[in-house]
Write a structure and sequence with these properties.
Elements (H helix, E strand, L loop, with lengths): L7 E5 H12 L7 E5 L1 H6 L2 H10 L4 E4 L2 H9 L6 E3 L7 H6 L3 E4 L2 H13 L5 E6 L14 H8 L5 E7 L11 H22 L4 E3 L3 H6 L7 E4 L10 H4 L6 E6 L2 E5 L4 E2 L5 E2 L4 E6 L17 E4 L2 E6 L7 E4 L10 E5 L5 H6 L5 H6 L6 E5 L2
Parallel strand pairs: 1-19, 2-3, 2-9, 3-4, 4-5, 5-6, 6-7, 7-8
Antiparallel strand pairs: 1-10, 10-18, 11-14, 12-13, 14-17, 15-16, 16-17
Helix pairs in contact: 6-7
């Protein structure tokens, strides 16, 4: 445990290892595991997370954009890296840094095929994404014939993987929809392999898919939020360990009288004598205005202190009336005693949005225990 003297995001790499091993235990030992480290490692540090996962012998990593994969390569990451949403402007960079693009449309396939050919590539590994109901990215099943025609006998590209993405695997009331996606993927895989030959990696399951539909694990699974300690279900959250903890300190205490107001637009008005604490972080750090005006609470010495008034750009105020505290004391926004999922729920959002929105200006601290 670090003594907190400023606003910090504490990253527990021991928790990351625990989560990886827990999720691994839910799949067959022969099934490969892809760790998703996009969005700055879900708001932490992608290079630190990737290095830890690589040390644990993870099979592959995934990022959203080419720039994220290039950052990892420049940091020394050697394992396969899938770019989930490649853009045409970045195809040359993808090839230069040996990244694997997720090709999802006839246009993207045609353009990458052309760029790779002009770069004299042979058997360049790519993945094909098919849409099975999320309706976000992906080929349609009837695109298989077009894919075969586009690839021809050029030998430029090699289909290393085929994938789709589940849209509601955490919601058991949508089980019929998810099972429909699984069946659609089975059909697509069969048709694709008949037309294109054997495809080594078939991956469909995300974190909730691993936990709720392990029979559909195919030859690889992909996990993002689960690695960072959240299983989208209380029964799994208890088995996982949050990797990130957001902590700060009390900058100043104020004792205000009845009728006095706090913050911009005088949004909080005291109904009696109150003690408030000002904290050094705000909406520029990822704690948006939606958490203000009593919606969310922080923890000070294990006691809840509601955020009062409007969250400022670099500061927010909390009501500490009745809490024995002093300037410089530690404050926990999420971490021990309150998870990111719980904090996010105060504003009607999810842990993903909160975690990935934490500003890079907040110092990251790392520990292994």
């Amino acid at each position: 445990m670090h003594d907190t003297h400023e606003t910090v995001l504490e990253i527990n790499l021991g928790a990351l290892e625990h989560n990886y091993r827990f999720l691994r235990s839910k799949i067959d030992p022969s099934t490969k595991f892809m760790g998703v480290v996009k969005a700055t490692g879900y708001g932490s540090n992608p290079l630190v997370i990737a290095r830890k996962l690589e040390s644990l012998k993870i099979d592959a990593l995934a990022v959203a954009y080419a720039s994220e994969g290039i950052h990892l390569r420049k940091g020394g990451i050697k394992c396969p890296i899938l770019v989930l949403h490649p853009q045409e402007a970045n195809f040359e960079g993808i090839i230069a840094h040996c990244l694997e693009p997720n090709l999802y449309s006839p246009k993207i396939l045609k353009t990458f095929h052309k760029v790779a050919g002009e770069a004299s590539q042979k058997d360049y590994p790519v993945h094909l994404k098919f849409n099975t109901g999320l309706n976000r990215l992906g080929f349609w099943e009837n695109d298989v014939k077009h894919i075969k025609e586009e690839l021809g006998n050029s030998g430029v590209l090699k289909i290393k993987g085929i994938l789709s993405h589940l849209g509601a695997s955490e919601d058991m009331s949508e089980k019929e929809f998810t099972e429909g996606q699984i069946k659609a993927f089975e059909s697509i895989v069969a048709e694709a392999e008949q037309a294109l030959g054997p495809i080594p990696l078939k991956h469909l399951l995300n974190t909730s898919g691993i936990l709720n539909y392990p029979n559909a694990q195919w030859s690889m699974v992909r996990s993002g939020i689960g690695l960072y300690g959240y299983g989208n279900d209380p029964k799994y959250d208890s088995a996982l360990r949050p990797v990130a903890s957001l902590k700060t300190i009390i900058s100043q205490l104020h004792r205000i009288e009845p009728g006095e107001t706090v913050g911009y637009n005088r949004a909080f008005r005291a109904d009696g004598f109150r003690t408030t604490a000002t904290l050094p972080l705000g909406h520029a750090d990822g704690i948006g205005r939606q958490y203000g005006n009593g919606k969310a609470s922080v923890l000070i010495h294990g006691k809840r202190a509601p955020i009062i008034g409007n969250v400022c750009m670099d500061m927010l105020m909390v009501d500490v009336t009745g809490i024995d505290c002093k300037e410089g004391d530690e404050v926990i926004l999420f971490g021990e005693g309150q998870s990111a999922e719980q904090f996010a729920s105060f504003a009607g959002t999810i842990s993903y949005e909160l975690l990935t929105g934490i500003s890079p200006r907040i110092k990251r601290l790392y520990r292994e225990s």
